[in-house]
Amino acid sequence: MIQKWRIALREAANLSGCHVNDQYETEVVKEIVDTIIRRLNHQPLSVGKNIVGIGVHLEKLKSLMNTELNMVSVVGIYGIGGVGKTTIAKAIYNEISHQYDGSSFLINIRERSKSDILQLQQELLHGILRGKNFKINNVDEGISMIKRCLSFNRVLVIFDDVDELKQLEYLAEEKDWFRAKSTIIITSRDKHVLAQYGVDIPYEVSKLNQEEAIELFSLWAFKQNHPQEVYKNLSYNIIDYADGLPLALKVLGAYLFGKKISNWESALCKLKIIPHMEIHNVLRISFDGLDDIEKGIFLDVACFFKGDDRDFVSRILGPHAEQAVTTLDDRCLITVSKNMLDMHDLIQQMGWEIIRQECPEDPGRRSRLWDSNAYHVLIRNTGTRAIEGLFLDRCKFNLSQLTTESFKEMNRLRLLKIHYPHREPFLEDQLFLEDHLPRDFEFSSYELTYLHWDGYPSESLPMNFHAKNLVELLLRGSNIKQVWKGNKLHDKLRVIDLSFSFHLIGIPDFSSVPNLEILILDWKSTSFRDSSYHGKGTCIVLPRSDGIPEWILNPGDNFSSITELPQNWHQINEFLGFAICCIYVPLADESEDIPEKESAHGPDNESDNKSEDESTHTWENETDDKSVAESFHKNEHKHTHSCHLRCFLSALGDRFDFQFVDRASFQSTCFCYKEDKDEDDESVSGQTWVVCYSKAAIPEMFHSYQLTEILARFHNYSEKALKVKEYGVRLIYSQDLQQSHKDADVRICRECRQDGTLQRKCCFKGSDMNEVPIIENLLELDSLCLRDCKNLTSLPSSIFGFKSLATLSCSGCSQLESFPEIPQDMESLRKLFLDGTAIKEIPSSIQHLRGLQYLDLRNCKNLLNLPESICNLTSLKHLDVQSCPKFKKLPDNLGRLQSLLHLSVGPLDSMNFQLPSLSGLCSLRELQLQACNIREIPSEICYLSSLVILCLGGNHFSRIPDGISQLYNLKHLDLSHCKMLQHIPELPSRLRCLDAHHCTSLENLSSQSNLLWSSLFKCFKFKIQGREFRRSVRTFFAESNGIPEWISHQKSGFKITMKLPWSWYENDDFLGFVLCSLYVPLEIETTTHRIFSCMLNFGDDSDSFLFDDLRFDQICECCYDEDASNQGLLVHYSKSDIPEKFHSNEWRTLNASFNVYFGIKPVKAARCGFHFLYAHDYEQNNLTMVQGSSSSHVDLGGHRSAVQDTNSTHSQRSCDTRSTVEDTNTDVERHCDGTTLIDGIGGWSFLANLFIGYAVQDTNFKSNILLDELVHIKL
C-alpha cells in the first residue's frame, strides 16, 4: 500500500499546474472542476467489436480538423451504405468530445426525423447542457432553446445518417447558431446535402484495402485475424465479392462462421445470383430515396453502362440523364472518374436484384435483360412490353434462331445492343453474317433511342422501323446496303457507325439527319486498324482530291492560315462558324521536296569541339544527307504505319497576342500508310482533312476580348512523311446553307465570298477591263473587288460616291499608277487594298477616308512615301508598307495615329531611311521594321507600352536602348540577322520568345558576365508567377561552338533518352531539366518556313505515350539569300510541367527528339543534350557567383541518371557509378571523378534559378484535350 502511495504522489508531483496569472483563483478552480466533471461524465459510445482500420480514419480526420480556429467547423463524412461512416463518427466522438463544453451524438436522423423530432431535440439539449434535463413542450420551443444554448457553449454535435437538409431544420438549421470553436459532424450518403449545409471539411470513407478486408472477414468467420488454411481460397473469393465493404465482410463472415466447406461453396454460388438480403436492404436505402427518373437511369447504368463514358451515357439516356448522373454521384451510388461511370460491385448487384425482383419467375416480364436471360427470351419469343433494354454478347450466343416474333411484343424497347465486346472479328474477317432475319422482321418499338447490332444480317432496316427517338445507330460489320429508304427525318440521330459494312452502297441523305455529329464509314477490315479524333470541331477525312474544294476559300500552300473574323462575330446570328481544310500528300509525290525526317535528321558532319572518340565515330554508311535520311527511314519506319495529323487553332485579338482554342488531332493506324507495302497494295496519294467549327466552339471568354482573327497551323506527326500541300478556310453563314445550286455559277471570287459581313458585293477579279464600268445600285454597294485587273490604269473619283462602300480591293492591279483624289469625307470605307499596284504616291486627300481602318500597300514597288495627311486618319488600325523597296520615309506626325495596332515596313533598298518619332502610338501592338537599314534604335521605342511583337531583324544597329525592359507587354522580340548587334540589355519580364540567330557580333552567351541569362531568368520567373503553364520561353541563338559545355549530357544526332532519378516527382531537390539542340544547314533547297520541334514521351518505344510536343515557328525571309549559320535552341522544363498522371517511378525513362519540319534553308538536329537541375546545385553555384569565381566544377551530387541513344548499339562510357551516358552515335567525354565542367557560371546559375522558380509552383496542373464530336469518312 505504501508503495502505491509513493507512486501516486510521484505522478501527482510531475503534473503541471495551472497558472493563475491575472485571473481570480475562483475562476481557475471553476475551470478545473468543470474539466474534471466533463471527463467524469464522459460516456464513450460503443463502436462494436472487431473494428479494423479505424485508426487511419481517426488520424486523417484529426489532421483535417483544427479545433483551435475561431470558427465553427463543419465536417461531412460520406460514402456508400455499410462502409463504416457511423462507426467512424462514434470513434471520433469518443476521442474528442471531452474537449468541449457539451456534446451530443444523434443517431439515425433519417428514420427518426419522420416521427421523433421532439425526442431528438431533447437528446440534443441533454448532451450540450452536460446532462441537465429541460422539458420542452413543442418543436418550436425546442428550436428556440437549442439556438440559445448553442450560442453560449462550445459544443460537439454529430448528426448521423442525414439524407435531406430539412431533417436538420428543427435541430440546427444553420451553422451560425453555433458558438465559435464548435464542431458539427454530419454523416450522409449524399454529398449534395453536405454541400447545401456548408460543410467545409468533406471526408470520403473509402473501402478497406485487401489486408484490412482479410483481417475483418477472418475475425468474424474464424475469430482470428487470418483465414484458416483449408478455407483460404473460399475466403478470398468471398472477400473479392465483398470488394472492401465492411458491412458485407462482417455479415458474410458471421453468416459463414462454423459452417462446413460445402456450405461455403453453396453460399458463394447463391451470392452470384441473389445477394445477401441484409446487405441488399442496407444498400437499397439510397436507391429508394431516388425519384422515378433517377431510379431508371441508375438501373440502366447498373445493368448496361458501368464503365462507359459519361457523355455517351448522357447522350443515350436523354435530357434528364446528365442531372440524374450528378445526383447518383452525390448519393454515392456511382462514381465518376476521368468522365467514366463506375460503381461498387455490390451496388451493381443491388441493381440487378431490383430487376430480378420485378418478376423472379419470368425474365420476359422484367424491364432490363442481359446475357443468358436476354438470349432465352429472344429465342423463345417470350418478350413483353415490360422490356426497356436488352444487351447481348454475340460471342457467347448463336442468334440464328431469331424469328419475326422475337421483338414483336417489345413495344417499349429503348436500348438494344447485340455486340462483339472486342474488335477482333472485324479485324480478322470473322463476322458471323450467316445469321438471317426473316423478310417480315420488324421492330415494333417507337421508343428506341440506341440500336447497336454488330453483324446485322439484313440489307436494310425494316420498312416500319421507327427512328423518331433514335440517338445512336451502330451497325458495324453488317450486311446493310442502304440504311433506310426514302427521306425520313431523324432529327435526334447524332451518331451513325456503319464501319466494316462491305456491302454498303449508299448513306443517308444528310438533310434527313440535321443533328448528326459522328459518322463512321471504315471500309477495309484488313486495312483499317484504329482511328480517333480529338477536338471541339467536326472532323471529316477524305481521299485526296484535285485540290481544295471550291467552297473552301483563301487557298494557300503554307502550313498556317490566319482568317479575319467579322466584327462582333459572337453577336451576329447569321454567322455560324468556320471550316478549315488542308490537303496532306506524301513527300515522295513532290519531287522538289524532301522528307521532313530527312531535313530534320541529316548526317552528322560535325568536327568542332569534339573529343577524339567523337570526331571519329559517325553514323553507319554516312555519305550525304540523302543517304542518312534513307537510312533513318529504313531503320525507324520499317514496320510502322500510322497517320497523325494535328491542327493547332489559336485566337488572335486586340487584347491578347494569341490563346489556344483547340488542338484538333486525327490519328489512324492504317495499312495504307505503311512504308514497305507490296506492289499490289494501295498507296496513299494524299488526304483531305476538314474540321468544321461552330462559333460555340470558341470559348465565351473570347467574346469580350475583341477577338479579330483565327490562326490555324497544320502539322504532321505521321510515321510516313507527309506535307501540307494546300490549305483553305471558309467562314460559314446561314445564307450559305440556303444558297441554291443555280447560284453556284455567280461570278464572285473566293476572297469576296470569304467576307460574309458584306452582302452587296461587286466582283471583277481577273477582268481585262481598262476602266471601271458603270455599276447599278452603286449607293447600296458595300464591296467592290478589282483584284488582278492587270489592264486597269486608273480609278474614277466617282467611286467615292458609293456611300455604303466598306471594302475596296485593287490588289494585284499592276498597271494602276495613281490613286484618285477624294473630293469629300467618306465614313463607310473601312478597308483599302492597294498591294501589288504601281502607285507612286498616295494623295493627301486620303484624310477624307475618316472611317479607314486597314490600309495595305505591300509590294508597291514604286511607292516613295506617304503624305502627312494620313496621320489624320484617327480610326486607322493597320498600316502595311512591306516589300516596297523604294520607300524612303514615314510621315513625321505618325504618333498621331493613336488607334494604330499594326505597323509593318521593309525590307528597303534605301540606305537613308529615317524613322520618325513613334511617340503617341499608345495602342501599337505589333511593330515590324525588318531590314530597313536602321543604324540606331530611338529610345522612345521604349514608351510603346502596348507593344506585344517587335521585329527589328536585319538592321545595322549595335545596341538596343536599355529602357526596353519597360515594355512590360512585349512577348516576342526578333533581332535575327542584326550582324552589328553586340549587346542585349535587360529584357521585359513578359518576354516569351527571343530570336537572336545570325547575330554574328553578339557577345559570347556562355560568358558568366553576360546579362542575357539573368534577364531571361526574370522572364521565366514572371511566367511561373503568372502560372502560364506549358508555355515555354524559348531562345534561338547563334552557336558556332556547339552546345554549351554546361549541358552535362550530350550526344550526336536528334534523339536522347533520360533516366529520371528515383522518386523524381517527390524529390524536393530535383527541380527539372534543360534540353538543348544544335541545328546545322543542309545542302537541300525547299521553300517553306521552319518549325522546330521537341517531342517528349515516356517509355522505351515509339508507341509509348506522348506527353508533350513543343513546336516553335521561325519565319526568316532573309535566310533565302544568306547562308544559315549554326543555331541553338534551348527549352527549359520543370518537373511540375510533367502531367501528374506520370508522377510515379513507373515513368522514369524519358525520350526527347528534336526535329525541323521543312525549312527555308533546311537544317538538321546535329547534336542534342540535357542537364538535370538540382536545388543544391543552384545554391552552390549561386554562392560561387557571389565570390566571383570564373569557373567551377559542380558535383552531380549522386544523382542517378542515364542517357541512351536508340539509333544503334555501340558502346558505353560511364563517368562514375552515379551518372552514366550511353551513346552509340558518339562517346561523350566526361570527367570521371564525379564532376562535370560547366562553362560559364552565369549560364548555369540562370538555369538553376529558373527551376528554383518552377519548384515552388503548384504541381497539380493537368493537360486536357477534349474528346468531342467525331466524324470519320474514309473512302
Automatic annotation (TrEMBL):
<feature type="compositionally biased region" description="Basic and acidic residues">
    <location>
        <begin position="1213"/>
        <end position="1224"/>
    </location>
</feature>
<feature type="region of interest" description="Disordered">
    <location>
        <begin position="593"/>
        <end position="625"/>
    </location>
</feature>
<dbReference type="InterPro" id="IPR042197">
    <property type="entry name" value="Apaf_helical"/>
</dbReference>
<keyword id="KW-0677">Repeat</keyword>
<dbReference type="InterPro" id="IPR036390">
    <property type="entry name" value="WH_DNA-bd_sf"/>
</dbReference>
<dbReference type="InterPro" id="IPR027417">
    <property type="entry name" value="P-loop_NTPase"/>
</dbReference>
<feature type="compositionally biased region" description="Basic and acidic residues">
    <location>
        <begin position="594"/>
        <end position="625"/>
    </location>
</feature>
<dbReference type="Pfam" id="PF20160">
    <property type="entry name" value="C-JID"/>
</dbReference>
<dbReference type="Pfam" id="PF23286">
    <property type="entry name" value="LRR_13"/>
</dbReference>
<dbReference type="InterPro" id="IPR003593">
    <property type="entry name" value="AAA+_ATPase"/>
</dbReference>
<dbReference type="InterPro" id="IPR032675">
    <property type="entry name" value="LRR_dom_sf"/>
</dbReference>
<keyword id="KW-0433">Leucine-rich repeat</keyword>
<protein>
    <recommendedName>
        <fullName>ADP-ribosyl cyclase/cyclic ADP-ribose hydrolase</fullName>
        <ecNumber>3.2.2.6</ecNumber>
    </recommendedName>
</protein>
<dbReference type="GO" id="GO:0061809">
    <property type="term" value="F:NAD+ nucleosidase activity, cyclic ADP-ribose generating"/>
</dbReference>
<dbReference type="Pfam" id="PF23282">
    <property type="entry name" value="WHD_ROQ1"/>
</dbReference>
<dbReference type="InterPro" id="IPR058192">
    <property type="entry name" value="WHD_ROQ1-like"/>
</dbReference>
<dbReference type="GO" id="GO:0043531">
    <property type="term" value="F:ADP binding"/>
</dbReference>
<dbReference type="Pfam" id="PF00931">
    <property type="entry name" value="NB-ARC"/>
</dbReference>
<dbReference type="InterPro" id="IPR045344">
    <property type="entry name" value="C-JID"/>
</dbReference>
<dbReference type="InterPro" id="IPR002182">
    <property type="entry name" value="NB-ARC"/>
</dbReference>
<keyword id="KW-0378">Hydrolase</keyword>
<dbReference type="InterPro" id="IPR003591">
    <property type="entry name" value="Leu-rich_rpt_typical-subtyp"/>
</dbReference>
<dbReference type="InterPro" id="IPR035897">
    <property type="entry name" value="Toll_tir_struct_dom_sf"/>
</dbReference>
<keyword id="KW-0520">NAD</keyword>
<feature type="compositionally biased region" description="Polar residues">
    <location>
        <begin position="1203"/>
        <end position="1212"/>
    </location>
</feature>
<dbReference type="InterPro" id="IPR001611">
    <property type="entry name" value="Leu-rich_rpt"/>
</dbReference>
<keyword id="KW-0611">Plant defense</keyword>
<feature type="domain" description="AAA+ ATPase">
    <location>
        <begin position="71"/>
        <end position="205"/>
    </location>
</feature>
<dbReference type="InterPro" id="IPR044974">
    <property type="entry name" value="Disease_R_plants"/>
</dbReference>
<dbReference type="GO" id="GO:0006952">
    <property type="term" value="P:defense response"/>
</dbReference>
<feature type="region of interest" description="Disordered">
    <location>
        <begin position="1202"/>
        <end position="1224"/>
    </location>
</feature>
<dbReference type="InterPro" id="IPR058546">
    <property type="entry name" value="RPS4B/Roq1-like_LRR"/>
</dbReference>
